[in-house]
Write a structure and sequence with these properties.
4 strands; elongated; about 65% helix; four-stranded antiparallel β-sheet; alpha+beta; Outer membrane efflux proteins (OEP); single chain
Length: about 425
């Protein structure tokens, strides 16, 4: 209960902190890494693998145990053994009927496997590689989560920028409509010209509603990535210097991809399992030692003893169990090796696609910037012409539409460029910001 209260309190503090101030990209990533279930599950899996490694390593140490037992018996064999252990034997004892004998026994025993046929070493190495794979899997989950946060972050900014462009277009259309009504009332403009503007204004307002819905859905997705309730308010900071930390990777490549490193570690772990399975054909040798104390009250005796020795076991025939285990382990090893090859091919394809996607995004943004500059200048001149009565409303509508479209394309291209950078860092196995 105490642990549950601590977790609940930490969660409430996190909610309050997110709601209290607008999100920067860096803060959004940190909150997601701390709170998203995907990374928490990956951390739990790593803890499990660390415990499995410790379990495998436990075979490197001796085992020590204590035990105790109290019994009473009239069985001649057990009774005579208790008499000898307690040191109370004499010539008056009837071997066939020693009577009722009691015995309290306590012992401590130590045992250590001197030679395991290589099983212990192979199992430890396999568990260590599996823990390494788990560490890389956690890193992969975190990088993928960071990339998802970046993509959603810029998608929200893109939606907000598009909203501003649509709202600006609506504002200009409303102003043009006001002018058209004045000109219509003075007989300078026919009614259809004003209706054209009203129809276009209604269409832009429909676009505004759709974009507001899109922006809200992206904020819901961001809340999910941050591990927050869907209704939590998500607001982005107006100024975000942390965005500048998102830069082109130093050495684009796949060799540091955690997915590849995890697959290679799993292949090495599978090789260790093959060696562990083969050890079933080799002898096992143990060393052991124990000390024992016995006490009886019916004959008022007591005694102590110790035992030490070596034992060896060799499997002559085990029903082909070892051969079957080796076959299973070899099949898993081959599958793991093929997964490495498959992973490498997939990651190389991802890298090539990301490089080309980034080049495309850069080119599209450069074109979009130029289009916006030109469209704004054309719109400025066209509004003056319309106000002076030398431009038709249909022509003005076309100019305003092209400006809004150009600004929307610039917002899309800007977001695409940032997202392409994040994707390129992800497919190069590099953290997005840190």
């Amino acid at each position: 209960m105490h642990s549950w209260l601590q977790v609940s309190l930490a969660y409430l503090i996190l909610l309050a902190g997110v709601a209290a101030q607008p999100l920067t990209l860096e803060r959004a990533i940190r909150v997601a890494l701390e709170n998203n279930p995907e990374t928490l599950l990956a951390r739990a899996r790593l803890m499990e693998l660390e415990s499995m490694e410790a379990l495998a390593d436990s075979g490197s140490y001796p085992t020590v145990s204590i035990w105790g037992n109290y019994q009473q018996t009239t069985n001649p064999m057990q009774g005579f053994g208790a008499i000898l252990s307690e040191g109370t034997f004499d010539n008056t004892i009837n071997f066939n009927d020693p009577g009722q004998i009691d015995q309290l026994t306590g012992a401590v025993e130590a045992r250590y496997r001197i030679y395991s046929g290589g099983e212990r070493k192979a199992s430890i190495e396999s568990a260590r590689k599996m823990r390494t794979a788990g560490s890389h899997a956690l890193e992969s989950a975190e990088i993928n989560l960071e990339a998802a946060v970046v993509e959603t972050y810029f998608a929200i900014r893109q939606s907000d920028e598009i909203l501003r462009s649509i709202e600006s277009g609506i504002h200009h259309l409303e102003e043009n409509l006001r002018i058209s009504r004045l000109r219509e009332s003075s007989g300078e403009l026919i009614r259809s010209e004003r209706l054209n503007l009203e129809v276009e204004l209604a269409s832009r307002r429909q676009d505004l509603l759709s974009q507001e819905h899109e922006s809200e859905m992206r904020r819901i997705k961001m809340a999910y990535l941050l591990g927050l309730p869907a209704g939590e308010t998500i607001e982005l900071a107006d100024e975000d210097a942390s965005v500048e930390k998102l830069v082109y990777p130093d050495f684009p490549g796949i060799e540091s991809r955690p997915e590849l490193l995890a697959a290679e570690a799993m292949a090495q772990a599978a090789s260790g399992q093959v060696r562990a399975a083969r050890s079933g054909r080799l002898p096992k040798m143990d060393a052991y030692a124990s000390w024992q104390a016995d006490k009886g009250w019916r004959r008022e005796g007591s005694g102590t003893s110790w035992t030490a020795g070596l034992s060896m076991q060799v499997a002559i025939f085990d029903g082909w169990a070892t051969r079957s285990k080796v076959g299973v382990a070899r099949a898993k090893e081959r599958a793991a090796e093929e997964r490495v090859r498959q992973t490498r091919l997939n990651l190389q394809m991802e890298l090539e696609q990301a490089l080309r996607f980034h080049e495309l995004a850069k080119g599209q943004k450069a074109v979009a910037v130029k289009q916006v500059e030109q469209s704004r200048e054309v719109a400025r001149l066209s509004r003056k012409q319309f106000a002076a009565g030398t431009l038709l409303s249909t022509e003005l509508i076309g100019v305003e539409s092209r400006l809004v479209d150009a600004e929307v394309q610039l917002a899309l291209a800007t977001s695409k460029e940032w997202i392409s950078l994040a994707r390129l860092r992800r497919v190069s196995g590099q953290r997005i910001l840190f």
